[in-house]
Amino acid sequence: MAQQIVEKEILEILEKNRQKCAVCQKCSLGKSRTKSVFSGGIPNHKLMLIGEAPGYWEDQKGEPFVGKAGILLDKIFASVGLSRQNDVYICNTLKCRPPDNRNPLPEEKAACREYLDVQVGLLKPKIILLCGNIAVQSFLEGSRGITRVRGQWFDGPYGSKMMPIFHPSYLLRNDTREKGGPKWLMWQDIQEIKRVYDSLS
Ligand code: SF4
After folding, report:
1. What is the rounded distance in angstroms from the CA atom of residue 95 to the CA atom of residue 128?
2. Each residue of 42-95: pLDDT tens digit?
3. How many domains does the chain contain in total?
4. How close is the Cα of 124 to the center of ligand 1, in Å?
5. 152 part of a folded domain
6. Residue 111: which CATH number?
7. Full-model pTM
8. Pick from 74, 63, 58: which is nearest to 18 by CA?
């Protein structure tokens, strides 16, 4: 069960935006994508994760965080009793895959921002997780790299608490379990996220 019921009107507007996104041509990525990736998980007012942009498998399936990175993300949530099926709304900064997984261009991020703003503005989640550098840069202007800001709480839109976290793809590339390593830090961060999650009504 989602932690809070989302009003029917909100679900309808999200669905309309999903459909709009599926045929969107506001930037050149609309021509090269297979499927746009609007969201995954469950709409709720408590916890949202914002990632970067679809990769190969996301583009094929139209779902965010599939493949190895998605499996690891699910494991991270499961380690504190959360799941995308029941607790987390997942979306990306950019809804279509940049060719060869290159970083999104500023004009692509600007063109796609309206969808993200609709998602955040409708759900007004109490906690927003910024997963990876692209998501961090979209909300924390002039921010330092993810390794400098991860694990810290920032004031987010609509009174939310916002925390940058490592992207699971980064954790897969840096597989050490040593104390102080990326995986160890992620473990600290997810426990802090759960602590705050549980403290919210
Ligand atoms: S990336 Fe965003 S703005 Fe560009 S075509 Fe896809 S949905 Fe539209």
Report:
1. 18
2. 999 999 999 999 999 999 999 999 989 999 999 999 999 999 999 999 999 999
3. 1
4. 22
5. yes
6. 3.40.470.10
7. 0.95
8. 63
Three-class DSSP category at 144: coil
Closest CA to 51 of 22, 83, 33, 41: 41
Evaluate whether residue 29 is within a structural domain. yes
Contact at 8 Å (CB) between 44 and 97? no
Q: 14: domain range?
A: 8-199
Which amino acid residue places its CA nearest to atom 4 of ligand 1? 27
Which residue ranges have their beta carbon within 6 Å of ligand 1? 21, 24-27, 29-30, 36, 94-96, 108, 111-112
Give the Å distance between the CA of 30 and the centre of ligand 1: 6
Angle at 95 between CA 98 and CA 128, to 5 degrees: 120
- Tell me the residue type at 34: T
Residue 38 CA to ligand 1 center (angstroms) comes to 10
* DSSP assignment string, 49-61: EEE----HHHHHH
Ligand 1 binding pocket mutation candidate from 37, 96, 105 (most atoms within 8 A of CB): 96
Which residue shows structure tokens 């997810």?
A: 190
User: Residue 155: in which H helix or E strand, if any?
Assistant: strand 154-155
Q: Is residue 2 part of a domain?
A: no
Sign of CA dihedral 70, 71, 74, 80: negative
Q: Please give the distance, rounded to the nearest whole angstrom, from the Cα atom of residue 104 to the centre of ligand 1.
A: 11
Residue 3, domain member (yes or no): no
